[in-house]
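== Sequence and structure of one protein ==
=== Format: two labelled lines per protein ===
==== Data for this protein ====
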Amino acid sequence: MAGGFAKLLCLLFLAGIAMRLTLLAVPPLIPLIHEELHMSETQIGLLIGLPLAVFAVAAVPGSLLIARIGSNLAIVAGVALAALAGAARGAAVNVWTLYVAAIVTGLGIAVMQPAMPMLVREWMQARIAAGTIAYSSGMVMGATLPPAVTLPLVLPLAGGSWRLDFVLWALPPLAIALVFLLFGPKRRDHAVAVVAGARSRLWWPDWKNPLVWLLGFGFGTNSAPFFAANAFLGDYLASRGQPDLFGPTLSALNGAQIVGLFVLIAMVGRLQRRAWPFLLFGPAMAAAFVGFIFVSSPFGIIVCAALVGISTSITMTAVLALPPVLAAPADVSRTAAGMLTITYTCAIVIPTLCGALWDITGKSWTVFVLPFLCGLGLTVIGSIAARYPSAGEKTSGLGVSRPA
């Protein structure tokens, strides 16, 4: 029994890694891509934002696909597509072909994302927080590894070629797809999917449900600042005459999320439907972006980057733990799809606007204004979502009262 539980945790962890590995292989290479393809800051923002736009557009069709083929197969297909398209970015001859490859990469990841809350609900109904931490930890590791090891290890292994670097980063997700295909509980997953489909054909999000919007904007105000920081830190530091800080700062931004994992593991019993992650780390994130603008010392900049990383890690897991708990069992997938549609709409619009503000004003610090506002929004929206009544509580008419 314990072995089976551990296996499921490992599978969720690996799936989480695959959801971020190909996506976060881009930021360390942005200065090289920027120089070779002669991209503007707005185009850089769009390069980061395009896969996120696909997340938004494809989340609902992904929910339908999950209902048709089951969560396991949807994840395998999504990982394989993201890996192959991620490698194809290395063949880009101009910014437009790079965009096409980025879009297809995003499509593969978008197929996976609505499946994860569904798998947690199906596999670990009694331990949803543990399952959510497992795959969100994988997402953190997938986001941490490329920024941490690309410049010192993978890029030299690729002979300094950002094109070959993309190919190398596609190999681990392909291996994960194979592991998931071989060891995922396919029969159980398929049976659950068939029963769920027989009971309900619901897959389109209920846009009239306030929960969908609360979760969407809550996750959006978490994700958009993280992607904006990854996209612009390199050029921002270069504009201040500190390009040598790019590697350490990017590593701190993404690596500090691992520290957040230790906090989550220690607080697993006090995470589910609690407001404290948002009340504490929303303001911390906002303060970190103010620090980027006003702090000039290398140590201070690295600390601000680490604070953004820790804040996004903890609040991301707190948000992702909510759909399996708050939505009715038959609605988990479509609620997650609606949440992701809103989330990644925010995540493309905000980084693109950040780059546009820089281009329009000519002032590099303006790139962090919107992420600062997102930190404040996360504090309020996340706290409300954490205290929102579940579908079962609404049906029974019972109110809920819980500590922060």
